[in-house]
Structure formats: structure tokens, C-alpha cells
Amino acid sequence: MKKLWLAAAIGSTLLASSAFAQSAPDNSKIVVAHRGASAYLPEHTLPAKAMAYAMRPDFIEQDVVMTKDDKLVVLHDHYLDRVTNVAEVFPDRARKDGRYYAIDFTLDEIKQLSVTEGFNIKDGKQVQGFPERYPMWTSDFKVPTFEEEIEMIQGMNKTLGYDIGIYPEIKAPWFHRHEGKDISKAVLKVLKNYGYTDKASKVFLQTFDFNELKRIHDELMPAMSMDVKLVQLMAYTDWNETMVYDSKGQAQPYSYDWMFAKGGMEKVAKYADGIGPWKPMVVSDESTKGNIKLTGLVNAAHAQGMQVHPYTFRADTGRIPAYANDFNDMLDIFYNTANVDGVFTDFPDRAVNFLHNKK
Ligand code: G3P
Ligand code: CA
User: Fold this and answer.
1) Which SUPFAM superfamilies match (predicted)?
2) Out of 34, 263, 284, 292, which residue is the most buried by the measure of CB atoms under 10 Å away?
3) Distance between CA atoms of residues 341 and 99, nearest Å
4) Where are the alpha helices (DSSP H) in 280-347?
């Protein structure tokens, strides 16, 4: 509830702050396949990415984490236990908190694991996160490397003649750096090796970590003669999405509050080409059918020349907000009423069809 209250407060602040420009910097709306076609096949597997590709989104997303031997793999969590059988294959390798960290395993070890549809443990049993989705532990899926996925997308760009981009997210750079790993530098090196070097490249590089975004913009990219498009993901402070280590080495939540206040978008725009907010940061959950309340965030970002790509659009039971009639209505509210430039969705086929039919 705190999040909803904050969203409403943020909206008032932004709306009251100034007269923002009304048009997007780029009128062509995009679809980002969130973790691939993750509504239909296990997230971040190569089959889910190939299926997403066939649906012809503009971009396919990769969440990227690092292994013990400094390889980059595509996984949403920096843990292995939500989507693999790591607890069965390596039962003694959990940390004290009970989690299996990707950074504690070599790529060779991770390649021994099977990937499944995501699950949580409840009363000692695996419970599928999205029960209507792909059945757990069927067929055989693996964790791909970042390079394997890029090669597959670029390979299909060649064979099919499309120009589908990549949208990698550097996961928890604050954690990786604390563990002695410079994941951002490694991600940039791979991007450069595969030809993603400048603003014209079909890539958006995203992270929740503002300090790291600044470092990428001010230090890493200039040192590597790179200048790709950057996206600042937005979270609420109490999600503990980004942490900072204090002088005693204790991790404390990074405060995102300034991003939502007057002048926040101006500061972000010094480093980023776009923002990736959570949906309620754009359309207030206090909205009702016929009374959509915009927070003002889109106009604030557009006024600074940034694109806005909110996450995550899902059509599963219970995932359509009360203010929308159905999935298409939700897309209409965001693309047309809120004027966002793109959406992250687990259902890329449906967003592509929506935009196509609108044209
Ligand atoms: O990166 C955009 C969106 O994917 C952020 O949420 O948690 O799915 O990475 P998450
Ligand atoms: Ca992501």
C-alpha cells in the first residue's frame, strides 16, 4: 500500500512541477520481449528467445549475471534456485541464507543444470509462479550465455532479414562489484565485440543502479570508445532492488526518492536516454475505468528528451489492473493515453498485434 500512496504523491509532485512537453521524442512505439516470450516458454531460455523473435518485437531482453569464472549468463535473478534444479544437483552449495548464487558456480557447472518455469517454495513444495504457464520440469532447457543469445538473435537477423535489437540489463552491479566482479565492463566488452557501439546500434543497456549508470556513462563507455543508449530502471526504495555498502560493509537500500521529485528526470537525463518505470509509476493504481490518472512521469521524462518503457505487461489471470477492461485496453491506456514509447511484455505477440492493428 505504501507503494501506491507514494505513486500518487509522486504523480502530484510531477504534475505540479512545470508544464511538460506533450509529445514523445520518438513517435514510433516499440515492444520489448520481456525475458523472451516468457508467457509461453521458460524465461530467458533460448527457445523462449527464438519464439519471441518469431513474434517480431523490436527488442528482446536479456537479464545478465556473472559466474564464478567471469562468464556472463542470462538469468533474471543472481540466484539459480528459482528456475533451475541447482538444489538437487549441488545440494551443498547454498550460502547461509539458503540461496544458490550464480556467482558461486562456474559456467561449466551452470550448464549442467536444467531450467524450468519459475517456482517458489511453499511448505517445502515447489509452486509454479504463474500456474497457467508452461508446465514445470518438462522438456530440457539450459541457461544460455550472453554471447550465445546475441549470436542467435544476430544469426536470425541474417537468415530472416529483420533487425531485432537486444535490451540487456546489468543485474545488481552493486552486488557483483562487492564480490570483486566488474560486470558492467564485461557486458560492455561483449556488446562491443558484437558491434553494439553507439547510439545508432540496436541496443538499450539498462540497470536499476544509478551510480553504475553514471559510471558506465562517464567512465566505462568513454574509455572503450562506446556510446550506446542507456536506460535507468526505476524502483521504490523499499524494494531493496539496489543496495549500497556503508563504511561498516553493511548493505543499505539505495534511495530512489529523488528520482520521483521535481528535477529528478533532469538529473537522470544527464546520463540516460530513457527510463524504465514500474507501471503504477506511470498510471496510478487509483485510476478507475474511464478515469485514468497519469502520474506525470511520462511528460517529465519526455520534457528531458528521454523515452519511457514501463514494465511489465502480463495477461495472466489477475494481472490486468482494475482500471483496464483487458490486456488490449491496458496497452491502449499506456501507449495512447499515457503516451509511453514502449512496453516490456511477457506476451510480445499480443503487443505487436496491438500496434499493428492500430496502424
Ligand atoms: O528490465 C525491465 C524489467 O525487466 C525490470 O524488471 O525484475 O523483470 O528485471 P525485472
Ligand atoms: Ca529486466
Assistant:
1) PLC-like phosphodiesterases
2) 34
3) 37
4) 297-303, 327-332
The Cα–Cα gap between 252 and 164 comes to 38
Q: How confident is the model at residue 21 (pLDDT cuts 50, 70, 90)?
A: very low
Q: Which atom of ligand 1 is nearest to the CA of 32?
A: 2
Choose one of 63, 308, 345 to mutate for the ligand 1 pocket test, by most ligand atoms within 8 angstroms of C-beta: 63
**Are the beta carbons of 176 and 243 closer than 8 angstroms?**
no
Which has the higher per-residue pLDDT, 358 or 181? 181
What's the CA gap between 57 and 290, in Å, rounded?
29
Nearest CA to ligand 1 atom 10: 76
Q: How far does residue 77's CA lie from ligand 1's centre (Å)?
A: 10
Question: What's domain 32-79+141-357's architecture?
Answer: Alpha-Beta Barrel (3.20)
For the ranges 15-19, 128-132, 268-272, 327-331, which has the lowest average pLDDT?
15-19
Return d(Cα 153, Cα 160) in angstroms, integer. Answer: 10
d(CA 207, ligand 1 centre) in Å: 9
Over residues 236-287, the pLDDT tens digits come to 999 999 999 999 989 999 999 999 999 999 999 999 999 999 999 999 999 9
Residue pair 184/70 in contact by the 8 Å Cβ criterion: no
**Going by C-beta distance under 8 Å and a sequence separation of 6 or more, which residues neighbour residue 293?**
8, 11, 283, 284, 286, 287
219: which DSSP letter? Answer: I
Active site residue 309: no
Q: Is the pLDDT of residue 157 over 80?
A: yes
Cell readout for 71 is: 562468464
Q: Which protein residue's CA is at the shortest distance from atom 2 of ligand 1?
A: 311
Q: Is position 356 annotated as part of the catalytic site? A: no
pLDDT band, very low/low/confident/very high, at 358 (cuts 50, 70, 90):
confident
pTM for this entry = 0.93
Q: Compute the distance from residue 115 Cα to the ligand 2 centre, in Å.
A: 18
